[in-house]
Design brief:
Elements (H helix, E strand, L loop, with lengths): L12 H34 L17 H7 L2 H32 L6 H8 L1 H4 L2 H12 L5 H8 L16 E2 L2 E2 H27 L3 H9 L4 H29 L3 H6 L11 H10 L4 H31 L1
Antiparallel strand pairs: 1-2
Length: about 300
């Protein structure tokens, strides 16, 4: 029997071929490990210490930070607000994005302009549009207040970001005001992804549905929606993860106030770590955020596997 010739590192040609993709991926894998997983490990490790910048001693306290979190009213308030913003903004912006995508998918002479214009909220830096919306929502010089007063709908200006007496059910006016801005800023990404999904649907399916006498609503329900399920799954998963860790709009507009009405986990972590200098306690909050986002990702992966098995 002839022996196979071995080359570099004593590997055969087939072995080198099988190893080649892993060698090509190794730089990216090292970068992810160094830039992502190592900081996560350090953050989780920090959550088990009483790490405060005001004192030199940083003793190991085990689960004490997490136990204190369970008794912290601010933590539970921020967690509740985070879940509400995550669900309401995730579902709401997806519905708005789907409506916009359906409009942009229609034949029109200005379709190119409308598609570009729909990306307007997405490309503006959050610092810029947050301060513009703060001007809209302020009490004294707000164009919204001016319009409402001219229409006779209100008798005096409203402090949209500070009035806790107004609201809809359990949602205060500041909470709803920030939610509007988050919906406005996040729907374009969904619209772009859903528009791509709409354009990938074969036209023959709609022609067959029309021949069978399907109405526009029936075509949307039985053709469009089923074909968009994979895209909607990706969008909702990414949206839930991004919204759970959302920081900039809530911090820039209200810094979590008034009275924690708009406080979310990311803002609470920042204010605890860099406002109160309790880095260990803030790291424990970050550990809870990591746990929740990981659960969302695991659930989505399991759903994908079940879908592939069907």
């Amino acid at each position: 029997m002839t022996k196979r010739k071995k080359g570099f590192l004593g590997l055969t040609g087939r072995q080198r071929e099988a190893l080649f993709p892993y060698i090509m991926l190794s730089p990216a894998l090292v970068a992810v490990l160094v830039l992502s997983f190592y900081p996560i490990f350090l953050g989780l490790r920090l959550s088990f210490y009483d790490y405060t910048l005001l004192y030199q001693s940083r003793p190991f306290i085990g689960w004490q930070n997490y136990i204190e979190l369970m008794r912290d009213a601010t933590f539970w308030s921020s967690l509740t607000n985070t879940l509400l913003y995550t669900v309401l903004n995730g579902v709401g912006s997806t519905i708005i994005g789907l409506g916009v995508a359906l409009l942009l998918n229609r034949e029109s002479r200005i379709r190119g302009f409308l598609r570009s214009f729909s990306l307007f909220p997405w490309v503006i830096p959050s610092v810029v549009f947050s301060y513009v919306w703060m001007w809209f929502f302020q009490r004294d010089f707000s164009p919204i207040n001016d319009l409402l007063m001219r229409l006779g709908l209100i008798s005096e200006p409203i402090a949209f970001l500070g009035n806790l007496d107004w609201g809809i059910g359990p949602f205060t006016l500041p909470f709803l005001s920030v939610l509007v801005v988050r919906l406005w800023s996040s729907f374009p990404m969904k619209a772009v992804m859903l528009l791509a999904g709409l354009q990938s649907i074969p036209a023959e399916l709609y022609e067959a549905a029309r021949i069978d006498g399907a109405t526009t609503w029936q075509q949307f329900r039985h053709v469009t929606l089923p074909m968009l399920v994979p895209v909607l799954g990706v969008i909702l998963t990414l949206t839930l993860i991004w919204n759970f860790g959302h920081f900039d709009i809530n911090y820039l507009m209200t810094q979590g106030g008034p009275r924690n009405a708009t406080n979310v986990m990311a803002v609470a972590v920042y204010l605890t770590g860099f406002g109160q200098f309790r880095l260990g306690y803030a790291a424990a909050m970050g550990g809870i955020m990591l746990l929740v986002t990981s659960l969302i990702a695991i659930v989505y992966i399991q759903m994908l596997r079940k879908r592939e098995d069907l």
